[in-house]
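Notes from the 1:1 (GR / supervisor)

We went over the backlog. Supervisor wanted to see one worked example end to end before approving the batch request, so GR pasted a single chain during the call. The sequence is below; no edits were made to it. Supervisor asked that the structure be written out right there so they could see what the output format looks like.
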Amino acid sequence: MRRFILPVAAILLTAACSSSKPAPTVDGNVPIGKPAAAKTDAAGVFKTLAGAVRTAKLTWTATAANDPNHLLGRPNQYTSKVAFADLQIPKSDTELGGTSMYKTGDVELGGSVEVFPDPADAAARAKYVEAVTKSVQAFAEYDYSHGSIVLRLSRFLTPDQAAVYKKALDKLS
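Structure output shown during the call:
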């Protein structure tokens, strides 16, 4: 009986190792592969965008302690987030009497990049942001998603300026 079990076990082990399906983890779950974009952080995405839009300047990086939305690292939420200013936005749109109406990190000053664990989470976030911003004109913004990335842009950018960001985003693999 032992002579029969050993060869069968070896065959099964070989078949399991050569399978294109991932092997189950200790808890029995099969690991889910992540698309290439999920391995990219928000700072890396921003660097690529800034290569296409030279007026974009990184201004803020989210941490668990400073994230005003308290979403960083939470289940199904972004794993990294940065905000940036865009010098194309006239100060007259963001200042009143020489004082900014917005704080560093606010989308109105340029935009933000949020990277999620997977495209479904990014799509859910984009849908949520779109619903909120459509309901109040003062919150309107350009919102684009690409894989596991959500790009939010200030309403103070022109459609042509926002299109340059979108084109750069769409080139990411």
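Supervisor's comment: The chain has five helices and seven strands.
Batch request approved.
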